Fold these 2 entries.
Entry 1:
Amino acid sequence: MIMGYSVEGSTDRALLKGLRDRWCPQMEMVEGHFRGSTGESRRREISKICDEFAFKGVDVMVFTTDANDRPWREVKKEEQDRFPPARLSLAIVGVADRNVECWICRDAAYVAERLGVSADVLSVADPKSGFESAIGLSRDDRKEAEIAALVLTAPLERWLDEPSFADFYEQLRDVSQRSGCAIENLRERGTGRE
């Protein structure tokens, strides 16, 4: 199986690699390329990226973006509206409410323990800067392997309390059942709360 993906940044790419390694390590990942350096550039080129993926024979296309300060469902609809209708059935659109670091730090205690910092640094409305500092992310070292490793072993069932991640997870799980990858049923495992 080949997954084409288009993301806004290195943390999003690391998140997808961690999920792939967790659920379907044999899946090949192909990054979609776009000209420009912003999320808006990528949005304008979604149709071209879809054509590139079709040419490369991808089985599923995964696009992620951040909602920033907008309602994530609204952003998701706008993103989906940019897809050529013939390609939409192969597309998964993940929109993180605020940013992808909010997903990763959903269980702040887990991330804090792994990174050796106080959970208070990550237990905030927007943990992006605290997370980047704690993991040592810099312009020259995006820490993708370390972020993927965090995601690989994260208690994802706790992330389901975040509606935007739950939506992304359900899309991934639906596709996995058609593709032969075994994505665990996190809902059976519960939220991990007593």
Entry 2:
Amino acid sequence: MNRSVMPTPGGYSQNPEMAQAIDRSPTFSSIADQMLHERDAQAMRYDYVYHLNATVAGQTTQAFNITIEQGTDFKSLWLTGDCFSYDAVNATSFPIPNSLGSTAWAGDGISIQITDTRSGRQLTSGFVPAKDLLTPGYGLNFQQPYPFRYYWYRNTKIRFDIRNRDGALREHTINIALKGYKLMSPND
């Protein structure tokens, strides 16, 4: 018996009694059913991450899009990300020193507005501070990703308007990851 391949019902032609016993076994049947269900479910739904990398100049607001492809819908579950900047005076990049000389993530002055362009819905109440949506926000410690449950239809653009109010006019780089799963309909 090849143990690397799961046997199929009736697959033991050398020993018909053993094959019949396995086929009648409720344990084997439930395992086989579970594996078939998992395979079929994965064909219709699988984990996926959309990523956005944006650079925004100081004292500007810019729009960036993530496009949900034509072939599948997307159910987002979590939103996470970070912000960083290059400080030419102190020749450091990540994390950036703050005015007190200690380190903090660059994110001061970064705010985000999220819009579902298909429906026109704004999913934030105007511009929300990046520290409220992204991880790790302003601190150096890891925080739980923000739960962001939303069903996105195929061919939808998710617009992220990012505002940088950095008074020193530094560019900030923002990385955003939208985690969830893709969904295919049975007709795809």
